Amino acid sequence: MAKKKNEFWEWIKALVIAVLLAAVIRYFLFAPIVVDGLSMMPTLHDQDRMIVSKFSYKIGEPERFDIIVFHAPEEKDYIKRVIGLPGDTIEYKDDTLYVNGKAYEEPYLDEYKKQVIDGPLTEPFTLEEKIGQTTVPEGELFVMGDNRRFSKDSRHIGTIPMEKVLGKTSVIYWPLEDVRFIK
């Protein structure tokens, strides 16, 4: 009888440890997210399931063109691409991104740029026109969706404070035919 009781408590302890470990991993390290909408097409599709690495920004600063998840002002989590880092000037003209006066290629937009026949994919703008400042403020990021015509991003909601960033994402795990690392 004592052996069965002891075995029962061992199973209970193992289950409690497993649940606690899963909670710690999900809260501090990794979390699943579902892409909701078309703002990151063609890179990400509606209902793609991804893993968010929560510790990636605890270690280092974000890099330009990282795909991040953050708490948006509407009490929702958004997934967008980092375009501007603190201190950067941002400008779009002739469908080309200029950061600090230097033109950058955005190969993830090539597919959509080929399809557009009625004007540029990204309307021309300067950072000052969008946020009222010439540079991205310290501790904040300027983000945009890849589906530029249909994305609610920093052009509409302003820059994103770093403390609102949940983490970086680069792995699609569902649907199975779309499993891949993204850039």
TrEMBL record:
EC identifiers of the protein: 3.4.21.89
Domain Peptidase S26 stretches: 9-174
Entry's transmembrane regions: 12-35
Annotated Pfam families: Peptidase_S26
Active site: 39, 80
Main location: membrane
SUPFAM superfamilies per record: LexA/Signal peptidase
Record field: catalytic activity: Cleavage of hydrophobic, N-terminal signal or leader sequences from secreted and periplasmic proteins
Membrane disposition: Single-pass type II membrane protein
Keywords on record: Hydrolase, Membrane, Protease, Transmembrane, Transmembrane helix
GO BP annotation list: signal peptide processing
Superkingdom of the organism of origin: Bacteria
Cellular localisation: Cell membrane; Membrane
Gene Ontology annotations for the cellular component aspect, listed alphabetically: plasma membrane
GO MF annotations, alphabetized: serine-type endopeptidase activity; signal peptidase activity
Leading EC class: hydrolase
Family: Belongs to the peptidase S26 family.
PANTHER family documented for this protein: SIGNAL PEPTIDASE I
Name of the protein described by the UniProt record: Signal peptidase I
Species classification: Bacteria, Bacillati, Bacillota, Bacilli, Bacillales
